[in-house]
Amino acid sequence: MPKKSLLAKHIFISLLVLVLLLAFIFLSFNLFRYISENNDIYILGQSLSTDVSFISIIVFLVIVGFLSYIVFYLISTGRTRIAFAIENVEIKSAMAEKQFAELYNSAPIPYIILNNNGEIIRPNKSTLRFFGVVPEEIVGKDLFTFVLAEDKDKADRILQHYKLNMPIDREELRMFTKNGSVKWVLISVFEINAKKGDGRTGLATIFDISEQKQLDQTKTEFMSLATHQLRTPLATLKWYSDMLLSPNFGSLTDKQTEYVKTIYKVNQDMIDLVDTLLNVSRIEIGTLSVNLESTDVPLIAESILGELASQITNKKINIVKQYNDSLKNIKSDPKLLRIIIQNLMTNAVKYTPEGGTVTLTLIETANSKQISVADTGLGIPKNQQDKIFTKLFRADNVRDISSSQSTGLGLYLIKSLVKVLNGNISFESKENEGSTFTITL
Ligand code: ADP
Predict the structure, then answer these.
(1) 0.90 surpassed by pTM
(2) Which CA distances in Å does 203 have to 123, 143, 289?
(3) Which of 236, 264, 285 is the last residue of a domain?
(4) Does the C-beta of 377 come closer than 6 Å to ligand 1?
(5) CATH number of the domain where residue 177 is located
(6) What is the pLDDT of residues 347-370, one digit of tens each?
(7) Is the CB of 210 under 6 A from ligand 1?
(8) 278 and 414: one domain?
């Protein structure tokens, strides 16, 4: 009902009821006055002006009449009041919808409403600016057709997830715009209408991270350059300290030997760190090369155990080897596999207290090749296990262990290397009981 006629109806009914009420009050008042002024009005032999019970009945009737009028008012105007309330709600929700539409349209982040098939139904202004298009150029198109060919597989996977109603949260993709420029984005899709079939809609957000990516790239390239430059002086230092410690060079005093050994150890730590940084930057820049050749995993394991011998002895760690002649000749990259096993073994020894056990197991079956490193060490707290493969992560329970031995890059590097070798890494860990890392190739 239009608002004006509704208001007129409401005022008319209210006035009518008010007039009736005033008429009733006027008549009642006059009746009272008449009765009180005339002593000669008798009903059933009783004088009305003096008999208290009759007056009480009349007062009672007046009150009942008054209340009945109120009820009558509420009932007679009930429909118009309900209509008013409904109209108010409608107005408020229309306003909220309008406000939402304004917010949606002018939000600084690209928002896109998608249909059930991932096609664009409603892009906001920011989206149009991002792609450099007018609505007609993108409405009805599959959002993922704007993804760069190199990321097509990932885009298909994301679209499948969307269709299967699975959450899509900040997936990194490269998208191209109308003028051909490529942008790095984080894309998320939330379901906004969970109806089955065609009625289902999703809200996609696109977060442009091209600038961050550019900065990251520059930083990684700088890191790669700087670490490259560090390699030569570190190698020279290692060579000279080796020479000083060699008996062929002549003897040093005990104090001198101790100092040179310290220089050697610190230098070796620096070489390891530089190697890790170089490998991380190679992975991030995409220049890490993989050379598949015949690889003897037990031989690699033995050489790593040799390198760790002094720490193993110092901490009285019991090493258990379960090789069973497995993985003696597999096709892999021995250098990359060495980095992986070395990091896992170093962690196992580092995070296992004195007297603990580290078990290295190699298993080869017709369908799978497995390398696993288990320890009886500190374990990883449950609430931090989801971050274990992220860069620079160190769990709270290892804070006491010297930070010079820890970069927080090892597992991040291992995960990337395992991926490069088309393998998989998983782990199980319980705080204060130990951890097992398993690589499947
Ligand atoms: P780093 O050991 O240099 O700190 P990593 O990336 O190798 O870096 O490991 C990241 C973190 O994961 C470690 O700081 C530690 O908290 C935890 N962690 C890794 N391996 C183990 C392990 N075998 N036992 C307990 N904690 C571990």
Answers:
(1) no
(2) 10, 11, 40
(3) 285
(4) yes
(5) 3.30.450.20
(6) 999 999 999 999 999 999 888 899
(7) no
(8) no
